[in-house]
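agent: user wants the structure for Enoyl-CoA hydratase [isoleucine degradation] from Acidisarcina polymorpha. delegating to structure tool.
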Amino acid sequence: MSTSGSTVVSPTLSDGGFASWSKRKKDATPLLRRAAVLGAGTMGSRIAAHLANAGLPVILLDIVPADAADSRASRGQLAARALEALLKAKPAAFYEPSVARRITIGNLVDDLGLLSDCDWVIEAVSEDLAVKLGLLSRIASHLDSNAIVTTNTSGLSIAAIAAGMPLKFRERWFGTHFFNPPRHMRLLEIIPTAESDPAAVSAIADFADRRLGKSVVYARDTPNFIANRIGTFAMLTTVRLMQEQDLSIEEVDALTGSAIGWPRTGTFRLADMVGIDVLAHVIRNFNRTRSSDSPALELPGWIETVLGRGWLGDKIGQGFYKKTGKDEQGRDIRLALDWKTLDYHLAGRPKFPSLEMAKNAESLPERLRMLLAGDPRKDKAAAFYRPLLTEIWNYAATCLPEIADNVVSIDRAMRTGFNWELGPFEMWDAVGVRHPGAADTIAFDTSLDTPGSVAQLLKAGFSAWYTDDPTVPSGRRFFDPIAGEMRPVELPKGIASIAHFRAANGIVRHNPGASLVDIGDDVACIELHSKKDAIGDDIVRLITQTLKSESDAVHNFRGFVISGDGTNFSVGANLMQLLLAAQEGEWDEVDLAIRAFQGMTAAIKFCPRPVVVATYGMCLGGGAEISLHAAQRRPHAELYMGLVETGVGLVPGGGGTKEMVLRGLDAATAASGISPVTAPARFAQSSEVLDSLKTRFETIALAKVSTSAAEARTLGLLSSNDMITANRDRVLSDAKQSVIALTEDGYAPPLPRTQIPMAGEAVLATLKLGVHFMREGGYISDHDVIVAHHVANILCGGSLTPGSLVSEQYLLDLERQAFLSLCGERKTLERISFTLKTGKPLRN
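agent: tool returned. relaying tokens verbatim.
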């Protein structure tokens, strides 16, 4: 096979970023100060939004409509509409709405002068070579001589777009292919040309990694680059097999979802979400620009008919599936398309016996082996999976020399661009390159030719694409077909996982829910790894034993990180344990469990060594309470954090409500200027105390959950001193550096507070009045009123005289009493039971 793109040595990410680029260009500024996006369509506008999330001022320009009036507002209306749409977008484009103020809108005629102050300009106009060529020629004279210009094209040749531009421009030109939606999809494919300056490429890659949170993968300048190339082939192979094996759309979605580590939506539901027209566009791009020896990828005729009817997916409410309202339980009624008749029918829930059995597997590799072990003559799942996975693996291996430098790039692209749990070569390793029954070949279908890269792998004496090696920083090596040997998987400095440190340094102590792992530099990590991310007795016990002042760990390490490698930090306390104890009336057991949880959070807060909690994904209930007690938090930008206990009829009982009281009073102190020490009564009756506690009451009573770390700050769950990490893979290392910094600054733990001025009866009455109005308006139930009154009582310290001084322990006792009382409520137990069964809250 020939390679249609030139071989480019991928630049490595460095710590230098734009500073490195500046050293190459004497007159360049040392930092990326401002960016511009040309084209305010769906992708362009969302790229602009995410650049604004990263803190950059952004210029967003689009064409002047043909019918525009002779006014600035009319001529810039396309960009203005795009900005309005961004504020309403779902999923949200901005971390929080105020970020939109960083975007300046305009048009591509009157406002090109704004580009002169931009360090990075991203072209995102329509996929038309002539349009792009014309735009580049018009903007060239307006750019700073060191501005980096990239294109977000998904199908055109990067080199061809800028072929007619001067060499100095081409040196600062390459591809930056974002995936939609740019905020939430981690992959960024960077496509250098043979003329791209490596320093400029590295600068953008570094910024994308650290500030945009991207997993950067270098691709070659070939049709559809890496992820779309493999993903489209996987989609069309799935469709072909569905037709050959006479499967339904619902059956295929059941087979191609989480069972094999792909998005749980499955193939067709995902296509509806992305847009069937987008899928068709990618395929046509490939067929238009592919090299002569690349096989064509064709859409089946029935999908062409679907497109012709305008059934484009979720954007118009109809595609491979169609919603027709709600059932009696409030669930969506979904119809599925019959691909043979193009009629809709009520979507079924297909069952495959082997799939049901495989759900019991502990890991995806074990599940894949189980699914492929079936007899394809008797097992529909095995009959489908064998050719599907075999063909995908063969295609990836065949494309390898054309589209990427190594298998690592392809696997990373599919994990972060299509949300596969394992990339194709990692999946292949999971079942074995030489799988039993494959007659010593790489395929179940021995009619397939063995790709050259696989032949080289086997010839070199290896039977897997990867091997574990704790002696290298990444902990893994990969097979390089060119070198014919295993080479270390390279990672940018600061990318780390607990798994690697566990393999390299071992485990200090562990139990089923948590482990203590040495992560180097005299810092240890308490890794949370319980099933379903719940906090049970085992986690409480290990954290408490590790962080108490007399612990060996406290003497052996200078600080601790609490984190994990999973999808979520924690979804909260183990409700099943609580429900069983409450149903049996084991109140002493429940009381002891609450006290133990409070003891754990106290151990975190008062540990002699700094404890930094690195949160990510869902950080709910008890997980949020752990976070609130740390010396510092180092959250991932995509953080869903909240004290959600009221949703199951409880209150935060592990110190969370207490910490929100303290934060509220501290905020009121700063805002009012009144000393809570010398004038506690006047302070407690100030409007600042009322406003601050009211805000925190709403956060807890309404079980508010942030949709980003930035929003968690506005809810009072994070402070302005808690630095946010954009890249999930950097959270652990950044938290470790925070521990080191706290230690070097002479960290001393806080002392328990014993003179806390309570708002008391006046604010309590105000909060209860608000609850009353909510009930009268029908917004909450009678049981919600009971729960909310408990929250208000803790926040105000009960019916005390304003300014009464209490201790932290006093507030903890109020929490525990409220929690126990609510555990005895029948409606609380109904809520807990319903949530355990459905994963949803019950309003009873």
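agent: one observation worth passing along. The CA atoms of residues 64 and 75 lie 5 Å apart.
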